[in-house]
């Protein structure tokens, strides 16, 4: 990396020495970057702490969001477990309801049959006493 930076500095010095031969480049028409020691380089250097602070804030935000996501995921797993448990409980209760409804129907049928039998018996007794 240091070798690359040295090559860039050498290139910039050569460009400054021969700027009269390349007026378009000297005027900034085709420049590939700021000159060493230029005002743009100073602006970039002055922005560096702000950018580092912004990067740190973003990293903090990202880690907070990851923590929130992990919390939400665990809550979702818990809720899914609760839903599954309630669904099983509902199914058991529905089965019990069906059994009770069938037993009730049988009980009512037996009671009606007994009541009919008693009514028939009473009617026979009344007809016999006439």
Automatic annotation (TrEMBL):
What are the BP-aspect GO terms? Answer: autophagy
Coiled-coil positions: 83-110
Q: Which GO terms describe its cellular component?
A: phagophore assembly site membrane
Q: Which UniProt keywords apply?
A: Autophagy, Coiled coil
Q: Where is the Autophagy-related protein domain?
A: 43-123
Any idea where this protein resides?
Preautophagosomal structure membrane
Q: Where are the transmembrane segments?
A: none
| Pfam families xrefs | ATG16 (PF08614)
Q: What is its main location?
A: membrane
Topology in the lipid bilayer is annotated as:
Peripheral membrane protein
Q: Which domain of life is it from?
A: Eukaryota
Q: Does the keyword Coiled coil apply?
A: yes
Family, similarity comment: Belongs to the ATG16 family.
What is the name listed in the Swiss-Prot or TrEMBL entry for this protein? Autophagy-related protein 16 domain-containing protein
Specify the species.
Huiozyma naganishii (strain ATCC MYA-139 / BCRC 22969 / CBS 8797 / KCTC 17520 / NBRC 10181 / NCYC 3082 / Yp74L-3) (Yeast)
């Amino acid at each position: 990396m240091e070798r690359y930076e040295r090559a860039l500095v050498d290139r910039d010095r050569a460009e400054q020495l021969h700027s009269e031969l390349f007026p378009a480049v000297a005027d900034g028409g085709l420049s590939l970057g700021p000159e060493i020691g230029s005002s743009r380089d100073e602006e970039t250097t002055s922005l560096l702490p702000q950018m580092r602070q912004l990067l740190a804030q973003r990293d903090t935000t990202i880690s907070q969001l990851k923590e929130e996501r992990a919390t939400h995921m665990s809550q979702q797993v818990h809720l899914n477990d609760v839903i599954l448990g309630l669904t099983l409980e509902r199914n058991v209760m529905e089965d019990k309801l069906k059994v009770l409804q069938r037993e009730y129907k049988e009980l009512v049928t037996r009671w009606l049959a007994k009541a009919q039998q008693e009514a028939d018996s009473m009617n026979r007794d009344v007809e016999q006493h006439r």
